[in-house]
Design brief:
Blueprint lengths: L11 H21 L13 H31 L9 H20 L5 H23 L7 H27 L7 H33 L7 H23 L2 H27 L8 H26 L2 H37 L17 H24 L2 H26 L4
């Protein structure tokens, strides 16, 4: 297990808006699925592009930024360089995300403005993280992963802004070349490597696992880093053979990472299958199925297989990995700030008491069913199933919001 210190943790009121907004965007993303049509469902559809940014920026990035604000100083055991900057990050990310979504849907003229606002938000975040890391003399593997992932985020948002400007007609660039570079820099370079690094801190901490080798983590981060670089080069120089190599390396990197998670879960002393455990089981199962479906795409060449693979990666892997951790992170932070000073003075709740059992279970059941139904709908081009899956996801998202607000406002 990694050493965790709360001495440098920022106040929870700084973190809470990230989690609240992230859960709201999870609901908005679920509602958005009703607008999809199986007849013209493709990566070129502006609705799909808007949905991707709504989910990744509004939900995934918003919650990752909040978690990073808390975890980076705790693991580094140094204070933030400028913790007050996080009060500016979430409003800018909120505004930028909405501008970009409406830009893709209704007016491309909004895209440059949304892109600049998102860029500003992320530049503040990346700069603050780099300056915080600079205060540490020796980096651990986990913090090296943070450094690497944020470097890729820097380039990813630059590529994204250039595409937004071109999409709006402000400048002229080859969007097709930048697209793959943007996707790999953000998905592979930032989100995947961040998840690898942070989960190796959080999962052992919450499952009490220890005495496992970090060698698989080193391999997976190294492979994913090489993957992103090769994919960017392949994109700029139009080298298809290099793209294929990057796809293979990305697959191997995620499989090695999944193997490490399996080892950690296998040796965990805490065996109960609570909402956290089953969420992670569904998350990593979705990752494996996503990889299998992606391989079928390369064999059969049908775009709906790639779309289904991305859906399982987004709502299945990213979605359940994040929501599962929320049920641990928020109670832990609220308990530490609100109840730890009362230890030995009065009766205080346990962390498990702070999790709403009914709404958390409802969220898992409805969202899991929704993810599976939508994946089948994409594979078989069924509008009826898309609507059915979206209905389940919306009900699950509402239950998730209730859980988040309950945990944040918990009183003994």
């Amino acid at each position: 297990m990694f050493k965790i210190s709360q001495d440098f943790a920022p106040p929870f009121k700084l973190i809470a808006p990230f989690f609240i907004l992230g859960s709201l965007f999870y609901l908005f993303s679920s509602l958005y699925i009703f607008s999809f049509s199986a007849d013209n469902f493709s990566f070129a559809d502006p609705k799909v592009i808007a949905f991707t940014h709504l989910f990744l920026l509004g939900f995934v990035m918003m919650i990752i930024f909040g978690a990073m604000a808390q975890l980076v100083p705790v693991v580094l055991e140094v204070g933030h360089f400028g913790v007050e900057l996080f009060y500016a990050i979430w409003p800018l990310l909120l505004i930028g995300t909405l501008l970009m979504v409406f830009g893709f849907l209704y007016s491309s003229a909004l895209l440059p403005y949304g892109g600049v606002v998102v860029l500003t938000s992320m530049m503040i975040f990346v700069g603050e993280i780099f300056l915080t890391i600079a205060k540490v003399k020796k980096l651990t593997l986990v913090m090296s992963s943070v450094l690497i992932s944020n470097t890729f985020l820097f380039f990813g948002i630059i590529f994204g802004l250039l595409m937004a400007l071109s999409y709006a007609g402000t400048i002229s660039v080859d969007i097709s070349s930048l697209l793959k570079a943007h996707i790999f820099a953000v998905l592979g370079g930032y989100i995947s490597i961040t998840i690898m690094g942070l989960s190796i801190v959080l999962i052992p901490m919450f499952t009490l696992s220890h005495s496992f080798s970090l060698r698989p983590l080193e391999i997976s981060i190294s492979l994913m880093s090489v993957t992103v670089v090769l994919a960017i080069l392949a994109s700029f120089f139009h080298l298809e053979w290099l793209s294929i190599i990057s796809y293979i390396l990305a697959t191997v990197a995620m499989l090695v990472y999944a193997y490490l998670i399996y080892i950690i879960y296998k040796i965990r002393p805490r065996k109960e299958n609570d909402i956290y455990a089953i969420s992670l089981m569904f998350s990593y199962s979705s990752l494996l199925v996503s990889i299998i479906v992606a391989l079928l795409y390369f064999m059969l060449g049908k775009e709906n297989y790639l779309l289904a693979s991305m859906w399982l990666l987004f709502f299945g892997f990213f979605g359940f990995l994040i929501t599962g951790h929320i049920y641990k992170i928020i109670p832990f932070l609220v308990w530490f700030e609100r109840f730890s000073p009362l230890v030995g003075k009065q009766k205080i709740p346990m962390l498990v008491d702070m999790i709403p059992q009914k709404s958390s279970q409802a969220q898992f059941i409805f969202c899991a069913i929704g993810v599976i139904i939508v994946a089948i709908a994409i594979l078989f081009n069924s509008n009826a199933l898309i609507g059915a899956g979206a209905s389940f996801l919306v009900m699950g998202a509402v239950a998730f919001i209730r859980s988040v607000l309950y945990m944040i406002n918990f009183k003994n």
